[in-house]
Specification:
alpha+beta, 29% helix, globular, 2 helices, two-stranded antiparallel ribbon, single chain
């Protein structure tokens, strides 16, 4: 799983290198099915993350699955756990 996360991170970085110089910030949030981007940003700001509108914010939302169906998970900030 760490290898997959590292590969995704490299792809995200490569995809946004072209063009204007942007600061790319990566966040990971665990939450319920259908968690919207504005709600995820609000939650991250409540957790004291510096989510700035002028930066490129990549927010991964992790949901649960059981028997192939999505299930709600409680909100949690998993940013510190992501591999660097």
């Amino acid at each position: 799983m760490r290898d997959l996360a590292a590969r995704i991170q490299r792809l995200e970085t490569a995809a946004f290198k072209a063009g204007a110089p942007l600061v790319v910030r990566r966040f990971v949030v665990q939450g319920p099915v259908g968690l919207s981007e504005p709600d995820a940003v609000a939650f991250l700001r409540e957790q004291r993350h510096d989510v700035r509108d002028r930066d490129l914010n990549v927010i991964r939302i992790v949901i649960g699955a059981e028997n192939g169906r999505p299930i709600d998970l409680p909100l949690a900030d998993l940013t510190a756990r992501q591999s660097r």
